[in-house]
UniProtKB/TrEMBL annotation:
Protein name per its UniProtKB record: Glucokinase
Source organism, top-level taxon: Bacteria
Transmembrane segments: none
Annotated organism of origin: Actibacterium lipolyticum
Gene: glk
Family listed: Belongs to the bacterial glucokinase family.
Length: 320
């Protein structure tokens, strides 16, 4: 097998699960995708070795992993899991020196040019510009983050960020009460404390506590109640979530000016996508005072492809 024929290893490491697959060039080989529960493994190297050994120690042409956390100087650290990976360890595990470590939102950004139309759910039509415009991906899942996608001469340049850890916006007394409720031991309320899976759970707890009937439910349970249409607290929690998602997305739109479009991704984004219109997302996104009309120019879609980050890893290796 020649270097050109050998597949590359790609992986998407979230706070709960890791998905690993092979890719041929920029094409993800979907029949090779395998999901691992992180709690069952001590570190990422063990996961990758288990995958490679399970495929008969396949020769690899390269390896690229996306991690849900900051990446600096070739070291990726997961925000919601005590794991880290560096390029040396990745090269040793994959048996190749052609390696890369990306933030998971960077991987989503590298995937944009490879997503087909059925993979995108329109939210707001806006007025997107041509191929030279900046785009933005916003991830809502175990955590929250964003990344700007800027056209470059050798493929897109995708910037890294930790947007989920900025302060939660406070516009009124209810927002202040919510911030006080969700802030942790560090006495800080971050965007991610509301806009994430655990954030939706906290919102449900906050709504029921304020009503005098405190309850606990994880994000999946809240969305299940919302789908049934008979849980007032779940709908109120989802409405507050949607309002804050609109506010945060609007803030990011003004920060990065993504006239090429905004793309929401992640498990929570996909779950809430069918309800965004009825729960008030457009008004929350556009509501920027004298810039309300300006915000109407941004198109927004939800990425329905759960494996987009894997495709992005493959695409990044092609341009590396």
């Amino acid at each position: 097998m020649t270097h050109a024929e050998a597949p590359a290893l790609v992986a998407d490491i979230g706070g709960t699960n890791t998905r690993v697959a092979l890719a041929q060039g920029s094409e993800l080989l979907t029949d090779t995708i395998h999901r691992f529960r992180n709690a069952e493994y001590p570190d990422l190297e063990t996961v990758l070795r288990h995958y490679i050994e399970g495929r008969g120690n396949t020769q690899l042409s390269g390896a690229c992993v996306a991690v849900a956390g900051p990446v600096r100087d070739g070291i990726g650290r997961l925000t919601n899991l005590n794991w880290q990976i560096d390029t040396e360890t990745l090269a040793r595990a994959a048996g190749t020196g052609r390696v890369a470590i990306l933030n998971d939102l960077q991987a989503q950004g590298h995937a944009l040019d490879y997503l087909d139309e059925p993979s995108l759910r329109p939210v707001l039509s806006g007025a997107p510009e041509g191929p030279n415009a900046t785009r933005l991906v916003i991830g809502i899942g175990t955590g929250f983050n964003a990344a700007a996608v800027i056209p470059g001469p050798n493929g897109p340049i995708v910037t890294a960020a930790e947007a989920g850890h900025v302060a939660l916006p406070v516009e009124n007394e209810d927002d202040l009460a919510l911030a006080t409720f969700v802030k942790g031991a560090d006495d800080f309320a971050a965007v991610e404390d509301v806009l994430s899976g655990r954030g939706l759970s906290r919102l449900f707890s906050w709504v029921t506590t304020r009503a005098g009937t405190p309850e606990q439910a994880d994000a999946a349970a809240v969305m299940g109640m919302l789908a049934q249409g008979d849980a007032v607290a779940a709908e109120e929690a989802a409405r507050i979530f949607t309002r804050h998602l609109g506010i945060a997305s609007g803030n990011l739109a003004l920060t990065f000016l993504p006239f090429g479009g905004i793309y929401l991704c992640g498990g929570v984004a996909r779950a809430v996508a069918p309800y965004l219109q009825q729960l008030g997302f457009p008004a929350a996104f556009h509501g920027k005072g004298r810039f309300t009309g300006f915000l109407e120019g941004f198109a927004i879609s939800v990425i329905e492809d759960d494996y987009a980050a894997l495709t992005g890893c493959a695409a990044h290796l092609v341009h590396k």
